[in-house]
Amino acid sequence: MIRIIAVDDELPALRRVGRLLESFEDIRVCGLFGTPQALLEHALTSMEPIDLALLDMDMPGMHGLELARKLRGVRPEMQLAFLTAHEEYAREAFDVEALDYLLKPIMKEDLERTLGRYAKRKSIGGKSEEAPGKGIVVRSFGSFDVTAENGQPVRFRNSKGRELLAYLHSQRGRFVGKAQIMEALWYGRDLERTQANLHTTVYQLRKDLEACGLGNVIHQSKTAGTGYGLQWSVAFDDVAAYEEEIRMFKMNSSLTALMRAVQLYGEGYLSGSGYEWAAPRQAELELGFVELLEAMVDTYVKHRRYEIALGPMQRWSQLLPLSGRLHAKMIALLLLMNRDKDAHDYHGLALELLDQADESAELDYARIFANPSALF
To answer: At a CB cut-off of 8 Å and minimum separation 6, what does 341 contact?
Structure first.
């Protein structure tokens, strides 16, 4: 699946590109925008990954090359291609590492070439721009996935093999005793059968890793009780990258670092996995993510970008539905957007939601209405 956005101030041309893209399989059009500002705001605020952006060149307010440079700053992993009626910008387009340069009117064959170039660039890179260079890539946000040094994804023959590798990776190189592993992955099961399951899972996992060139990764220790540990050199770990972006944001209040952290987090640490042992780490990372969302909301409100602030605010409310402070800030944001009726209605819904909680005391509508900016 290739996720694409496009911008063109000529709406007929934009709609044409949209129709052509929808005629391809495995293409998802994530947004068509009539202004560069609208596309840039989407790139800044969207929680979804974007693979490719198609940019018009001559647009009022911001030239396509300027837009491309801004996108490079906030979405370095995203590929860019230009749509234009003029040939004179071709050299500048490739200065920003554009994937392609399409002359209008755009034909289906043109997009086929661009999509082919996208597929070729990704296959040569073997991984996202988030993970430059060669090496093992580990992703724990969303489904746990590993890509070997040769660019080949590890294919797990059973779910317990994937879970065991995720568990060992979470230990950050530390050896873990068999008893601890069995309690984490097979809690409450028959001991003898669990030991057999562990040995079978380790054996199969080693085979899965060897199949893509990752031999001799799982090591066994017999000191202080038999256990297992991972010894590998990881070139890119999305959790480590996420924590580094948070560190950069706290150090210099970089909005770019903040956006990259939010994009890396996605749907959360091992989301949907059902791994009970991961719950403490999930809660820890989610707490930090909530703080990031609040910082993002406050930053946008400070710059009076109220519409953009609404997206992270809604994501925040999904994570903490019983927070009176959050609902108070949502009411304040709606008031700042001059949506007084929506703010009043939301206040009533929040009071019902918090009826059994101790948080409703923060929802003093008159106080919020008098000075909504004070809550940010």
So the answer is: none
